[in-house]
Recover the amino acids of this structure.
């Protein structure tokens, strides 16, 4: 017997909830994953509570404030704990509101690309034939160009703006999900439990909904978590080379605008936002790796 | 309510009626090659198989790996569309089975009757359960598909099914990975039972289990059959299991049925050398351990180009000249001989029985010529050779014509496809 305690007052919802709790717990038992989780929680808290942490005094909070009376202040200056930029923008303000920009960017891009990728991958995997061939060749073409260069090209065509960076990332990042989804469908479709569902006469829609989607979601979730980090990294790079708007509270822009001062010893304006990009990408990569192990129902719990 | 429905159904079920009939069934898988994926041949997984399953009986289907038994069971379960031939299922239309009972030509409502009355249990107890489905959803799923139950009624039905397979209410809200192999197989069986089917296809249901657990599962299947008047198609390579479970046994070799009949007859008085070889290869507790177990020589021929005549003749210890010797037998012989096969330049085939084999040099041709006349080839093959001559680099050979080997009656429902003991010979 795997377990002997009779759970008589049980319900499916409770068990599913408990399993999610178990996944979370097994995530936290792995020290590197736990570190990533803590960083993510801090970063998310920062993004969500930005209006309270750093109340804006200008109509557009995503614009860096400019205080021409306090430019190029070093860290530790009263009122500017992380110093100020060449234009007198508070670096801490940029760091805090930059996390909000990053969260927006990564959430929008991940949700859009997961949906596009899953839909296209499902069409390819389910319909098959020449439609599958055509879609997968498109995916191959997309995958043959490095993400950063492709995103750069698209963003350059669209013109420099933060919205266009998001748009270009959406165009670039869906391909992996399409590929994963298609591979999962082909794999799961041949599994015995799908055969069993066919023998009982279940519909193709139900097989997709109850067998294929839940089992394909694991690698998709892992990839999505990793991409939460990668997207900010690529997005910041695009901002850095000037494909975003200048003067906004976005980490890549801040690094870019601060780098001129590094040679003259004013390291703080680009170091702190750069550190944030590093932490963001690191944290999501750590959690993504941990999630890969935790979401596999066979290793979960290790009973 | 469930009990009432069950007894109703049992009354309709008359033991002995033919429930499912497989007639001349073929399933060929195309072999595709190259960029254009052109078909270069077919793997004849199932190649002209006929047999019946009667209500309430267990038919054991045995054979080596790759003989087509799994493909056949998938056809019976409706998972694979046969290339040709037909599967007839008694959906209660009345009268003898006919063309209207073909599962691929039935009206929708009767197909649904077939569908819910034929269920399957798979070999791999882990892979056959969705790892993200709770036991209640897994076993309750067929009931939901046919809108048989929902809510608390569904829960009660699932509990009832769990109890029938020796599990209980406490297992409702568990995931498959929380069970042992034997328990998972019980869940699979409960799922197959949910719709109260007439036929369950069991594809090696105990092969992945420990011997002690195997016995438990077999006893469970045995009990369920007695209570529910189920028919089983029991696919296995384990002859002891077949002997224990099956009323009738069907032996397959390379996509064909070579022998079928009552299990006792097959085990006590097998007519086909292949069945005999399988039985001899079965280790037994009473065996003298100093005597090596008799095993079959050679490999199973390529199912893409199966041997003519009796497909077993290439490995048969008692083959006769009438077993269907052909040019391909020489090709198979050459494939086993590296040096001769290297120097083979071409086979000019006039018919399946007559060909000229050309070699790079005269020594190789002479070597083959000598080998074909010596005891390096079976005596039956030498006897079946009508002409064999050496002409420089070419060896010409012709085999005698033989009749097709088909299943012939051996009395009491026992049929075998072997030239030995065939009526009139």
């Amino acid at each position: 017997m795997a377990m002997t305690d009779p759970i008589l007052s049980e319900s499916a919802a409770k068990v599913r909830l408990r399993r999610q709790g178990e996944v979370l717990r097994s995530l936290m038992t792995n020290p590197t994953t736990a570190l990533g989780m803590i960083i993510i929680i801090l970063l998310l808290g920062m993004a969500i509570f930005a209006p309270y942490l750093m109340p804006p005094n200008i109509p557009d909070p995503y614009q860096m404030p400019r205080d021409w009376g306090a430019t190029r202040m070093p860290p530790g200056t009263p009122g500017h704990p992380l110093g100020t930029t060449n234009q007198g923008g508070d670096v801490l303000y940029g760091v805090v509101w930059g996390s909000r920009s990053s969260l927006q960017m990564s959430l929008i891009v991940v949700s859009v690309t997961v949906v596009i990728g899953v839909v296209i991958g499902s069409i390819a995997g389910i319909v098959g034939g020449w439609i599958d061939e055509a879609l997968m060749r498109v995916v191959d073409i997309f995958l043959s160009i490095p993400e950063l260069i492709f995103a750069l090209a698209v963003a350059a065509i669209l013109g420099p703006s933060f919205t266009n960076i998001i748009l270009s990332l959406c165009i670039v990042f869906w391909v992996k999900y399409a590929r994963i989804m298609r591979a999962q469908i082909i794999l799961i479709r041949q599994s015995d439990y799908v055969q069993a569902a066919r023998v009982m006469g279940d519909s193709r829609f139900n097989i997709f909904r109850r067998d294929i989607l839940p089992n394909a979601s694991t690698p998709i979730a892992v990839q999505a978590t990793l991409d939460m980090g990668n997207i900010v990294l690529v997005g910041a790079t695009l901002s850095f080379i000037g494909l975003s708007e200048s003067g906004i509270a976005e980490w890549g822009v801040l690094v870019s605008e601060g780098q001129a001062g590094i040679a003259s010893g004013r390291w703080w304006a680009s170091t702190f936002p750069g550190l944030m990009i590093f932490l963001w990408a690191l944290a999501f990569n750590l959690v993504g790796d941990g999630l890969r192990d935790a979401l596999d129902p066979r290793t979960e719990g290790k009973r | 309510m469930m009990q009432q429905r069950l007894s109703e159904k049992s009354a309709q079920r008359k033991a002995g009626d033919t429930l499912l009939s497989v007639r001349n069934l073929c399933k060929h898988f195309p072999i595709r090659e190259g960029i254009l994926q052109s078909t270069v041949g077919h793997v004849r997984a199932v190649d002209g198989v006929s047999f019946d399953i009667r209500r309430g009986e267990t038919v054991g289907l045995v054979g080596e790996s790759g003989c087509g038994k799994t493909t056949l069971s998938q056809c019976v379960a409706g998972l694979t569309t046969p290339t040709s031939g037909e599967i007839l299922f008694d959906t209660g239309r009345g009268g003898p089975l006919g063309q209207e009972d073909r599962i691929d030509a039935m009206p929708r409502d009767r197909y649904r009757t077939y569908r819910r009355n034929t269920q399957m249990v798979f070999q791999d107890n882990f892979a056959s359960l969705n790892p993200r489905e709770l036991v209640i959803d897994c076993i309750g799923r067929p009931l939901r598909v046919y809108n048989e139950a929902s809510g608390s009624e569904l829960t009660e039905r699932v509990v009832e099914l769990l109890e029938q397979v020796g599990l209980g209410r406490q297992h409702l809200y568990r995931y498959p990975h929380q069970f042992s192999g034997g328990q998972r197989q019980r869940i699979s069986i409960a799922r197959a039972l949910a719709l109260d089917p007439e036929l369950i296809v069991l594809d090696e249901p105990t092969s992945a289990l420990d011997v002690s657990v195997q016995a438990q599962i077999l006893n469970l299947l045995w009990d369920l059959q007695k209570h529910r008047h189920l028919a089983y198609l029991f696919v296995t390579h384990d002859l002891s299991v077949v002997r224990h479970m099956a009323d009738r046994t069907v032996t397959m070799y390379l996509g064909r049925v070579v022998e079928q009949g009552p299990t006792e007859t097959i085990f006590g008085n097998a007519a086909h050398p292949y069945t005999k070889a399988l039985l001899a290869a079965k280790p037994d507790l009473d065996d003298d351990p100093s005597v090596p177990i008799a095993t079959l020589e050679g490999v199973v021929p390529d199912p893409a180009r199966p041997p003519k005549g009796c497909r077993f003749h290439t490995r048969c210890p008692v083959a006769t000249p009438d077993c269907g010797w052909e040019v391909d037998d020489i090709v198979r012989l050459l494939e086993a001989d590296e040096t001769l096969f290297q120097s083979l330049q071409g086979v000019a085939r006039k018919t399946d029985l007559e060909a000229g084999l050309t070699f790079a040099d005269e020594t190789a041709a002479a070597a083959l010529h000598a080998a074909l006349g010596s005891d390096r080839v079976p005596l039956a093959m030498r006897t079946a050779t009508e002409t064999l001559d050496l002409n420089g680099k070419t060896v010409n050979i012709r085999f005698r014509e033989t009749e097709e080997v088909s299943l012939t009656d051996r009395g009491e429902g026992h049929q075998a496809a072997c030239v030995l003991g065939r009526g009139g010979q």
User: Anything to note?
Assistant: Residues 204-243 of chain A form the longest helix (40 residues). DSSP finds twelve helices and no strands in chain A. The domain at 86-294 of chain A is CATH 1.10.3720.10 (MetI-like fold).
